[in-house]
């Protein structure tokens, strides 16, 4: 799969969330989501901020790098300071204005993504990323935050095989999930056998691995993005693999704990 296909899948995932929020009432835009202190509007504001940051990282890499020092200076001030930086201007917008801002940011990102090739590396808030990994991370973000929105307003999104991007990212970040907590990753490999929304079987990992995770790809994606506790899903895992799923984190940043059992729909 080339970077152009990842970009198309990202745009499709963004549009799927757009179809959830476009018809919401003002009350629903203000509804609390599972992210503490964040409303539905905040979720969309977050996506807008980082879509614009992604555009800058692609089109003005030097300027993006120059701004990182200021970003991290704010970030050390804690969540409230970072929220003020990333969400402040969007919290001042009424829902129609915010939706328009997000759509404009997405359009800019589509244009910027069109300049990438498979070998391009993009600067970001940690190490630089290959273009496909960079856009996959954006797809994971919109899908995961979209799940928070769906949970808040009682919406149902039909899963698609675009989840393969997130499933693969979740598998590849297994070691990172341990290292991010100061733990040594287990030396034994894990194999995934996931049932795709289309009914296909997706396999990741070595065929001879004895530690295995099986079940719906949707459930695996919900777990590695910390939107569901593994025990609330239909996933089956050998004990070492289950241990991983308890701390799995497919996204960058300091270690965070996902929801407790029975705390999400």
Short description:
With 265 residues, this protein is of the alpha+beta class. It is built from 11 helices and 6 strands. The protein has helices at 3-21, 26-29, 40-59, 61-75, 79-91, 95-113, 131-153, 163-172, 174-179, 217-224, 239-247; strands at residues 121-122, 129-130, 190-195, 201-204, 211-216, 236-237.
Write a structural description:
This protein starts with a helix and ends in an 18-residue tail after the last helix. It has helices at 3-21, 26-29, 40-59, 61-75, 79-91, 95-113, 131-153, 163-172, 174-179, 217-224, 239-247, and strands at 121-122, 129-130, 190-195, 201-204, 211-216, 236-237. 55% of the residues lie in helices and 8% in strands. The strands form 2 sheets. It has a 4-stranded mixed beta sheet with strand order 4-3-5-6. The protein has a two-stranded antiparallel sheet with strand order 1-2. The chain has 11 helices and 6 strands. It is globular and about 50 Å long. The mean pLDDT is 94. It is of the alpha+beta class and 265 residues long.
